[in-house]
Design goal:
By secondary structure, the chain is an alpha/beta fold. It folds into three domains: 157 residues, Alpha-Beta Complex (Aspartate Aminotransferase, domain 1), CATH 3.90.1150; 87 residues, Histone, subunit A (Orthogonal Bundle), CATH 1.10.20.110; 258 residues, 3-Layer(aba) Sandwich (Aspartate Aminotransferase, domain 2), CATH 3.40.640.10. It has 20 helices and 13 strands. Strand 7, helix 11 and strand 8 form a beta-alpha-beta unit. The longest helix has 26 residues. The radius of gyration is 25 Å and the shape is globular. The mean pLDDT is 94.
């Protein structure tokens, strides 16, 4: 660790600390078991097969335009007759993986969504070739409608929802977070000294970004309680009634407890919004698709909420960088911009006047697009069109899976790994109907108390320096976990990703944790001269 002790690294982000832990584990002489990052080792195959086969069809379309040349030159696809040529391609490749999904996609788009099949085939074909700038730059026209339908199914479900929403396709959830913070700042919806609330525990960057010099925001923490199975108490949510709190940012289901907000909490928060109609909510729902009957705050409070969704975890697509930002067509952000003082309005007019003739009518979500390219480069904004095609195919894959076979498989994979983690432990994980178990937050205080009793855990917590447990675990067993403190947990804990290792390796991690706790028990007996209470 370059002569640094674990406590010297206590202020690092968990994701930066991971590099030091990995180096330590690599020197252990044991197999490296890195459960510190949430990159899944599973992925959706069928929509990828469809993507690559659609690419084959697109190349045939391109080569039609320059068929007289032999220099590797192609042209743009043609809309006229494209549906007929597509049908011929399907008939010649019936047994090729992915081709059936291509056919089913066109049928679904035409018969269930009411979109014109030729236009859909053309948008996908031109998009996968990547031969045109994204137009519209916010999101391709039919792609936006299809992804909207997917979000309506997965984020809204059966909850009553009126109106439509606008989407901005972005380079993953992290880009979405960056763009949103920036545009809120540029449009004076948050200014230095403002207070924002964060639902803890939470994805670490949400804690780190507000304190940066370009934002200088005061943070109010809304703490989920392990005693309440990681739900927010009414006392904590009541902090949002303070008019000084401009916005509430959260991850739902949470990271790392992986627990979705209960129906009771959702309703209570919706009631708070009725009392605080000016409250802005940003909900990052990347893990929502792992849950059954998930309801987003976007469904409960659509006019106040910015929804961030990423395809990275559910479809195993972290390298694709696929995310989307959604706002309701009628939202308080647009109204808040309209209500800004005239002097500020004039400054914003100047900022956006090069891209629209009437800047004051520019929606918040379109300002996001412009700001993502420093306004002046707005004409080249937008997510790459091949990426949008893959996003559409992921969406259609889920929309057409009426029996939720893929979801059930993902849930089974993850929950088997949780059981494997505790296979050799003297205690078993408690079932929580609200948990999706993508991550597991192992609370060392609760765990140690249940196994060895309160006197032992009190001694252990006084004995350990920050991060010492994690570095000792890495050095002895090659296991890398992340500190829960970096995600805003109140108790000493470790985040374990259940997404990125084999089932048998979680058995090994559980055994390594058991052995390390036994070592500490032996030290406790030697130092104190007494046995633990349990």
């Amino acid at each position: 660790m370059s002569n640094m002790e674990p406590e010297d690294l206590s202020e690092l982000s968990p994701f930066e600390l991971k590099n030091f832990l990995t180096d330590t584990a690599a020197k252990s002489g044991r197999l490296l078991l890195n459960a510190g990052r949430g990159n899944p080792n599973f992925l959706a195959t069928e929509p990828r097969h469809a993507f690559f086969q659609w690419g084959r069809f697109a190349m045939l379309e391109s080569e039609r335009s320059f068929s007289y040349m032999r220099e590797g030159v192609g042209g743009f696809p043609e809309l006229k007759g494209i549906e007929e040529r597509f049908e011929i391609f399907l008939s010649h490749n019936q047994n090729v993986p992915g081709v059936k999904m291509m056919a089913d996609s066109v049928s679904y788009v035409r018969d269930h969504l009411g979109l014109p099949a030729p236009d859909f085939i053309y948008e996908m074909t031109e998009g996968i070739l990547g031969c045109m700038y994204p137009v519209p730059d916010r999101m391709l026209k039919l792609s936006e409608q299809i992804v909207s339908e997917y979000l309506r199914q997965e984020m809204v479900g059966e909850h009553p929802f009126q109106g439509n929403f606008d989407l901005f396709a972005v380079e993953g959830g992290t880009a979405a977070i960056t763009y949103i913070f920036n545009t809120l700042k540029e449009n004076r919806l948050i200014i230095p000294g403002d207070s924002i609330a964060l639902g803890l525990p939470i994805f670490t960057p949400y804690i780190e970004i507000p304190a940066l010099s370009e934002y200088q925001l005061n943070e109010v923490f809304i703490n989920a309680s392990p005693e309440l199975d990681w739900q927010y108490s009414t006392h904590e949510l009541n902090k949002l009634l303070d008019p000084k709190v401009k916005a509430f940012f959260l991850v739902n289901p949470s990271n790392p407890p992986s627990v979705k907000m209960s129906e009771q909490s959702l309703r209570y928060l919706a009631d708070i919004v009725k009392q605080r109609p000016d409250l802005v909510i940003l909900t990052d729902d990347v893990y929502g698709t792992f849950a059954d009957d998930f309801t987003s705050l976007f469904a409960m409070c659509p006019h106040n909420t910015i929804l961030v969704y990423s395809y990275s975890k559910y479809f195993g697509a972290t390298g694709w960088r696929l995310g989307v930002i959604a706002t309701h067509e009628d939202n308080i952000l647009d109204q808040a911009i309209q209500d800004l003082p005239e002097a500020v309005q004039q400054q914003l007019d100047k900022r956006y006047e090069s891209i629209v003739t009437n800047p004051r009518k520019l929606k918040f979500i379109d300002r996001l697009v412009a700001d993502s390219r420093t306004v002046a480069l707005n004409h080249t904004a937008g997510l790459s069109t091949p990426a949008q095609v893959q996003m559409v195919l992921f969406s259609l894959f889920s929309l057409m899976d009426e029996e939720k076979r893929y979801r059930k498989t993902m849930q089974q994979v993850i929950r088997r790994r949780l059981q494997a983690l505790y296979k050799n432990a003297p205690i078993k994980p408690k079932f929580d109907a609200e948990s999706v178990d993508y991550y597991h937050l192992m609370d060392m205080e609760i765990l140690g108390n249940e196994i060895y009793g309160p006197d032992f855990i009190k001694w252990l917590l006084n004995r350990l320096t920050p991060n010492e447990f994690l570095f000792t675990l890495a050095a002895k067993s090659g296991v890398v976990l992340l500190p829960g403190k970096g995600f805003g947990t109140s108790h000493p804990s470790a985040r374990i990703s259940l997404a990125n290792l084999k089932e048998v390796q979680y058995c090994q991690i559980g055994q390594a944790l058991k052995e390390l706790m036994a070592d500490y028990k032996a030290e406790y007996v030697k130092v104190t001269g007494k046995s633990p209470d349990k």
